[in-house]
Amino acid sequence: GDSSEYPYPQVLQKHAFSNKTRFVFIMGLEGSGHHMFGPLLHQCHRCKCPPSIKGFALDSLSMTHGMFGGLSSRGEVARHMETLVQELPGELAQFYGRGKFSSATFFINTLCENWGTGELSYPNYNHECRKFKIPDVRIMAEIFESLGIDFRIMVVVRNALDILLSTTVHRHFESWSSAAKKYIDILEKDMIEGQ
Fold first, then answer.
1. This prediction's pTM
2. Rounded to whole angstroms, what are the CA distances from 78 to 57, 61, 163?
3. Quick check: helix, strand or coil at residue 15?
4. In this structure, are residues 20 and 103 in contact, taking their beta carbons and an 8 Å threshold?
5. pLDDT, tens digit, for every residue of 55-69?
6. Strands 150-155, 47-48: parallel, antiparallel or unpaired by DSSP?
């Protein structure tokens, strides 16, 4: 059919706000400095890892499988989405039922790897098929909104020259020219337009 009959909303309206429960995703190009948040967040008493969910992963096997998996089939992605929707409310009820915390901010990446995540940069992992190893926070935002759970995205910004120096000169991920083009494409298509 004609896809214009079902237009995809360019901006997802946020209706879920909470001072009790909040999930945060730290979003940044590799080399933007988002790795520094791990040690900082470990010092925060209210900052928590998301509850573990059996059978659910955002990322597994170097970002090839899971909800964000670059090589995942649509069916696999759908199964992970369904598991998250079905299991997260119960897991949160158990978390608060233990009576240790009355509120929490759960950091999806950088703090821990409960959902099979590491830092989750854009792109994620320094292996083959990097173009397809891009976190899709739009899907995550839609899921959290559907559950009525407050979800926030914190975007880490760094000077373009410093990012290229970090990834090509200091860390030797790839050549300057290929990295520059790749980061521009990812920034435009995956981080701005696609989310």
1. 0.78
2. 12, 18, 34
3. coil
4. yes
5. 888 876 555 677 877
6. unpaired
